[in-house]
TrEMBL record:
<dbReference type="InterPro" id="IPR029028">
    <property type="entry name" value="Alpha/beta_knot_MTases"/>
</dbReference>
<keyword id="KW-0819">tRNA processing</keyword>
<dbReference type="GO" id="GO:0005737">
    <property type="term" value="C:cytoplasm"/>
</dbReference>
<comment type="function">
    <text>Specifically catalyzes the AdoMet-dependent 2'-O-ribose methylation of cytidine at position 56 in tRNAs.</text>
</comment>
<dbReference type="InterPro" id="IPR029026">
    <property type="entry name" value="tRNA_m1G_MTases_N"/>
</dbReference>
<keyword id="KW-0489">Methyltransferase</keyword>
<comment type="subunit">
    <text>Homodimer.</text>
</comment>
<feature type="binding site">
    <location>
        <begin position="112"/>
        <end position="116"/>
    </location>
    <ligand>
        <name>S-adenosyl-L-methionine</name>
    </ligand>
</feature>
<dbReference type="GO" id="GO:0106059">
    <property type="term" value="F:tRNA (cytidine(56)-2'-O)-methyltransferase activity"/>
</dbReference>
<keyword id="KW-0808">Transferase</keyword>
<dbReference type="GO" id="GO:0002128">
    <property type="term" value="P:tRNA nucleoside ribose methylation"/>
</dbReference>
<comment type="similarity">
    <text>Belongs to the aTrm56 family.</text>
</comment>
<dbReference type="InterPro" id="IPR002845">
    <property type="entry name" value="tRNA_mtfrase_aTrm56"/>
</dbReference>
<dbReference type="Pfam" id="PF01994">
    <property type="entry name" value="Trm56"/>
</dbReference>
<feature type="binding site">
    <location>
        <begin position="130"/>
        <end position="137"/>
    </location>
    <ligand>
        <name>S-adenosyl-L-methionine</name>
    </ligand>
</feature>
<keyword id="KW-0963">Cytoplasm</keyword>
<protein>
    <recommendedName>
        <fullName>tRNA (cytidine(56)-2'-O)-methyltransferase</fullName>
        <ecNumber>2.1.1.206</ecNumber>
    </recommendedName>
</protein>
Length: 177
């Protein structure tokens, strides 16, 4: 499989810090290599980096990026761009084609916050929806990452962290490594 990167658009520090942090944590947990954030919000990057240090994975965050230049660079390197939007094609109608491309190409998943600039719809290779209804960008991202990888993300190991969960049916079991 190729790399997955998430591009978070339109982050408003006074309103979106928790949601954007959850976009990053969801991306990390479900197999993405890193997140690009158009805002200069260092607190979001620091929060995600703390989790990555504790739990492992090597997930990276870059802040203050320009979305147009990042999308252009991604496409020039041979990657595809998938924009999650309720206005797009329903995921079941196009996921097989995207999976086929993902075998040899990286995927940049674009997730908006506030109103997404109109050119994003043209820059994206795919505008994908999960139901053509208003929904959470975190839920849409999680569903897409799962469908793209067909559940393989659950087999990812995070061996370089300070903490590791020992799965158990009841209670919490965390081991320091």
């Amino acid at each position: 499989m190729s790399d997955i990167v998430v591009l978070r658009l339109g982050h408003r520090p006074e309103r979106d810090a928790r949601v954007t942090t959850h976009v990053g944590l969801t991306s990390r947990a479900l197999g993405a290599a890193g997140m690009l954030l158009t805002s200069d919000d260092k607190s979001v990057a620091e929060s995600i980096e703390r989790v990555d240090k504790s739990w492992g994975g090597g997930f990276w965050v870059r802040i203050g990026v320009g979305y147009r230049s990042e999308i252009r660079k991604w496409k020039e390197s041979g990657g595809i761009v998938v924009h999650m939007t309720m206005y797009g094609i329903n995921m079941p109608d196009c996921i097989e084609h995207i999976r086929d491309e993902f075998k040899t190409k990286g995927v940049m998943v674009v997730v908006g916050a506030e109103k997404v600039p109109g050119d994003v719809y043209q820059l994206a290779d795919y505008n994908i929806a999960v139901g053509n209804q208003p929904h959470s960008e975190i839920a849409a991202l999680a569903l897409f990452l799962d469908w793209l990888q067909q559940g393989r993300e659950f087999g990812k190991t995070f061996s370089d962290g300070e903490l590791r969960i020992i799965p158990c049916e009841h209670g919490k079991n965390v081991e320091r490594t």
